[in-house]
Automatic annotation (TrEMBL), chain A:
Protein's UniProt name: WD repeat-containing protein 46
Main location group: nucleus
BING4 C-terminal domain boundaries: 424-502
Gene: WDR46
Basic and acidic residues: bias regions: 8-23, 30-58, 571-584
InterPro entries: BING4_C_dom, WD40/YVTN_repeat-like_dom_sf, WD40_repeat_dom_sf, WD40_rpt, WDR46/Utp7
UniProt organism field: Geotrypetes seraphini (Gaboon caecilian)
Region (Disordered): 1-90, 534-558, 571-599
Nucleus found in the keyword field: yes
UniProtKB/TrEMBL annotation, chain B:
Domain of life, per lineage: Eukaryota
GO cellular component terms given for this protein: small-subunit processome
Compartment(s) of residence: Nucleus, Nucleolus
Name of this protein: U3 small nucleolar RNA-associated protein 14 homolog A isoform X1
Originating species: Geotrypetes seraphini (Gaboon caecilian)
Start and end residues of each stretch annotated as Disordered: 395-427, 439-507, 541-580, 760-783
Family indicated by similarity: Belongs to the UTP14 family.
Biased composition (Acidic residues): 415-427, 449-469
A Pfam family the protein falls into: Utp14
Keyword Nucleus found: yes
Keyword Nucleotide-binding: no
Amino acid sequence: MAVGGSETEAKRPVNVGGKDKSRTVKKIKRYWDESQTKESATDTPRTEEPRDDGEKSAEKRKRKPRERRQKRLGGRKQMSGKVDLFPGPASIPQQKIMKFERGEKTKLGQVSNRKLKGHLKTLETKVKLAKTQAARFDLLLPEEAGFLEGDEGEDTCTIQQEDIVDAVDITSGSKHFNLVLNQFGPYRLNYTRNGRYLLLGGRRGHVAAMDWHAKSLMCEMNVMESINDVKWLHTENMFAVAQKKWLYVYDNQGVELHCVKKFNDVLKMEFLPYHFLLATCSATGFLQYLDISVGKEIAAICTKAGRLDVMAQNPHNAIIHLGHPNGTVSLWSPNLKEPLVKMLCHKAAVRAVTVDNTGKYMITSGLDRKLKVYDVRMYRLLHSYVIPFGASHLSFSQKSLLAAGCGDTVQVYKDVHVKPARKPYMVHRVQQGVHGIQFCPYEDVLGIGHGEGFTSMLVPGAGEANFDALENNPFRSRKQRQEWEVKALLEKVQPDLITLEPGILGEVDFLTMEQKHKERVERLGFDPLAKEKFEPKHKKKGRSSTGQLLKRKKMVAEEEQRKLIRESVEEKLQQEKEKKKSEKMALLGQKSALDRFKK
Amino acid sequence: MAWKITRSREQDAVDVKTQGCSIHFSTYMAKEEDLFYSEHPVSGSEDEGGSDEERKHHKLLEAIASLDGKKRKKLGERTEASLHVSEFSVSSEGASDKIELSELLQPMKVSSSLKKQLNKVKQKAAVELPLSKEETQRIQRQVAYEKASKAITKWDRVVLQNRRADQLVFPLNQEPLVVKPIEEVLTTWQARTPLEQEIFNILHKNKQPLTDPLLTPMEEASLKAMSLEEAKLRRAELQKARALQSYYEAKARREKKIKSKKYHKVQKKGKQKEALKEFETLKMKNPEAALEELQKMERIRIEERMSLKHQNSGKWARSKAIMAKYDQEARQAMQEQLAKNKELTKKLQVVSDSDEAEVEEETLVPASINEVQLSADSSNPWMLGKLGSDAKDSGIEEELQEPPILSDTGTKNIEEEEKELELSEEETLLQEFEERCHLRKQQQKVEDGEMEQSNDDMDPEEGQTSDLEDNIKDQQMLASKDLDHSGKPEELERSPTCAMSSDVNGLEKIADEPSVREEGPFLMEQLQRVQTVEEVGALGGEEWAGGEEEQINPLRREEQQQTVTTVPGEKKKRKKSSLINLKSVLSASSHTIKTPTLPTTVEEEEEEEGNQKLIIKEAFAGDDVIKDFLKEKRNSEQAGKPKNIDLTLPGWGEWGGTGLKPSTKKRKRFLIRAAPGPPRKDSKLPNVIINEKRDLLATAHQVNELPFPFDNCRQFQSSIRTPIGATWNTQYAFQRLTVPRVITKLGHVIAPMADEDTFLSTQTSQQTKPAYALNPRKPRTRR
């Protein structure tokens, strides 16, 4: 207790010595002062004990924020609530705020309209607030992602599933399991968007839907036809099955809801969740879009590229990527009958394509046994890998782990797009050839469909640790799902808006604007937006003589020209600077061998 | 005396116009006239000295006037006396039309002062004609407008402020609800009403805190007296005691309810015996305590004697006495009472049993309860602790007091036992923990061993596949393991070109290469430790990519150099000849990946039949793919180019007919060359065709006109760059981004702004603040 007393004394701003010094401003004597002074008097011998200078300075530092606060409060003592030693909101590192940066700030200096300037100013402050708030609330994401780490000299890829199961807790361990389904051929699989439900489709007609956490079967049936692909629709209540002839839609009890005869010979399907579109590609070379909210075919595009069995969607912009036998990958939107982009990726046929969650990287694998990483924004190749036997199936996890199914092994790679990987992160072997792989969202699980059934593989660090319950809630109840469904339908994005650049709505259609302006100018006979020609003011006392007028006009014209020149010169200088810099870098790069250690 | 008054009309008019300015002379006159007329109702024209000549003359004049045909208005001539005298009928007669003032005053005796006044009046110029009604009104309007506009300017600031405000909350001037620390509220608050002042006075007198520290010195002291932990401990103690008491009470109640007399008898006897025994033992062990006990009993006896408690004199006893005649039980009870009395009043050497039991009962309850009840004069449990440094002492005292009590009930022993148990439990836990650690270590060791074993096991598994490659691979792995543990990549690497050129003899290559690779210098590996694409570029990727290659096939190196896409020097070259290097783009250096497990079998793909053709195609026509692609690209480029317009008319100015073509000169002359369009987006990407067609469906949703106040597109775009929805923002930010422009409160009258509001709003700009702001600010007070 004694120690506590001395501490409080040290922190207290009012001390006896100080009071003597400030005699000039006479302090009003309070009844509570007395007790304090008494106490301090009793405590003084303790405080007067010799101390190290370092300690003192430390104490000073300790006292500072408090004193500052005291000053702000006008020397008053705050009794309600605890004293905040670090007043004001906690500072957020700029790095974190940068994460939530959206586009460039408006330059207010160039705004001509005063009212607009005010409006933009308030808007900017609000935007800044939103940014900082978002950065601040990042703290509230409680879960942290972690990856497998091997001991010294141990590769993570040598770690077996059994080891992981032994190491992790029971709940996580139970997520590794095998379903032995060796009767109905290799399996395709699909998880719902919240990662709760699993749909299995055997080649020989076996369809099973289940809540795989609880391992409870929802429905199981045989469609008595070969199955090419299965896909959940927006909720776990419906799923689409691409059968031998047509596309069927079943509900979660296995009751056939629709047989869509317009969609025949479908080989692969992708569901675009925000547009409620089911994109299918068929053996006849058609790429078709079915709006499942209204049951209408939105677009049927003849790709003229033969059999289509390689398909992926870009989750960022809902563009469909198709892989072709001639080594090209084409990008499609339902609005154009031609591919938006066509890339030659492999010299041989493309076997699998996948796009990562951010929509920045595309990974392709071809018959030439290569795995290539492309930047889809630039359409540039980043890395190229040679994989033994090549990958027949690819899948990206939420945390950008890449799973590649090669024959009967599944290899999981980490950061393939960031830096060249040398070894897989994890490897798992199944009994027969892999027929379908998908990472389970929000879980560290990779689902593998193969000839012998289904294997749920544990891949630490694969899933997003923090889920947004309003977006995808793995634990949602029936009522919540219904609510979500209504909201999602209300917020459905029209298929018209599927473009390469999803931010297009925030941009002005410049070409149409120009056209419109041109038409207007024609109609009016003059350009209403044109800059007014300089008209010299009439001045008296002979200052408006012809010569003077000319002079004035010239002055203005020259000023404008000077401005132009200045700008162009600055631009040039900038360019030169950059050029020099890059040259220098290049030279340096060539010059020294030690330079590689530089950052 | 009669007055002859003739007034010019002009004068009359002047009177009317200058009314209110000053009292005119003529009005005086008029008043006098009135007075006069009331006395002598005679018309003005009927003069006393009515000169006939004049009348005649007048008539003559009239006659003359009537001669010239013009109808002149006749001035009425009054012949009879009447009350109403029209001023219009008064005519000015005489040579001059104007009357001189002096004339009017002639009959009066003129004083000098009056004369002076008259002179003054004379000197004044005639008043100008007044402005017309419209003009005066216009002037008045102007003045009023100026005044009003000046008055209104005080509103300018308010209006501007409200216009600029982010949000307006109606009714205005409401004190916003803000959470403020109590200190701020108190310091700004002052006692105004007499009641408040009185209260303040009382507080002052009693040394109660008014504003600042909020606590009385007593409270402060008490706060200091007991720390939170102590208080908690104390509370826990009290709780325990209370619980014990309640248990005991419940037990007693239960026992009391038992109606069996036998039970009670047995109980009582048992107790008596016990008490006796105890007393005996006490005598033996502690004679002093036994003495005390005796004294206590003595005391009880004395008290009994004093109180006359059991002498059958109470209410109950009296009622029983009545009943005793008929009721056996009542009689018995009375007798019992009397016996008790006797017993108690008897001077005893031996203890009376029943009372002993009672005493014991009391002591069964822990002393702390009683103590609490004694000291708990205030309801606040926190105040129970003693002030200042006493808190500690009291705690010590309690501790001192407690043991004997506890020992009485035997609870302490139990507690101790429990403690021991806990201790032992902890110990066992610790032991278990250690054991587990030990076990784990052992297990790890075992596992490591197993791991190694399993690794070894894996190899034979792979070996079983009996594929040529796998065998080689396994051998490599084993070899590498022997070499070094850290793992120099003993991978199955193939140069991209070799992979491309010959898939058929690829297997052989695989067999050949590793042996060469193993000899590769360790330095090479260091070079490979490049992390980012940029670094790859800076290093001159071909060096490290082709380094290993070089040893295998030095001839391929040149080819390999082209493959690197990120070398700056290379970039330029490619810009020049982008199409040539497409091959290089495709056959970029690729990293080979080493895996511990290889797929066992060549895939049995379901699409095998379909892919068969493709595989063959891929095997033989690697270049074809590129050629096809280039062709396609060229075509699309051509299609996208703006077309020239040919306006040549064959046969115009020269010979025409079948087989004849217009001359080149002419064609050149009439060809309108289209301006080259903007460069294609894929002009620098040899392996990409980007569609240049516009997506009309998407553009239909775009803004295609610059909205009003914006200067340029960029400004507008940046103003809508951030989403404002709740999906992308935190709750607070979302609210701020979507504040409603105006908020009105239900059921509140929105009164127009008062005058004083203008003044207030200049002081503070409260309206700009959102309604739900939580940060405390000074409220706007209205006085």
